[in-house]
Amino acid sequence: MRKINQIEKSKFITIFNNIFENSSWIAEELYYLKPFENFDDLKSKMLSVFENTNYENQLKVIKNHPDLANKTKISNLSKESLNEQKKSQLDQCTDEEYKEFHHLNDKYKEKFGFPFILAVSGKSKIEILDIFRSRYLSDLNDELNQAKKQVLKIAELRLNEIKENY
Q1: pTM as predicted
Q2: Are residues 75 and 16 in the same domain?
Q3: Quick one: which of 82, 79, 68, 61 has its CA closest to 116?
């Protein structure tokens, strides 16, 4: 932990920049919460930055998340999102699966105003599609709460990967 506590600001932000998808402002706020007692303290403080920010900032973070299994935008994915989607084989969908993901992504964003978010780690593309179909039937309030929970879960998973290196 001493190593992380001593890192200069620009390197710190680079390391924690994409824990919350394309939201370096969270990493910057976290920097000013140093020193951290241990990694759990760092994780708790970072998750709290998201949880305690205003609705507009939370919605921006949610909207920063990419569509799932969108092969036309794969080159625009963050390295973290690309790895997560590849591990769940979302880069290996059949044409029919790609079409369904595309249709669900469009309908979901039209209905809710933000992309479908799911921590895909450990899930197959079939499980992901089933969850996607089910959550599309939710109401806005439930789905917004679910999106926030999933953002936090993704952040926690990404932090756990960083922990292995520090």
Answers
A1: 0.91
A2: no
A3: 68
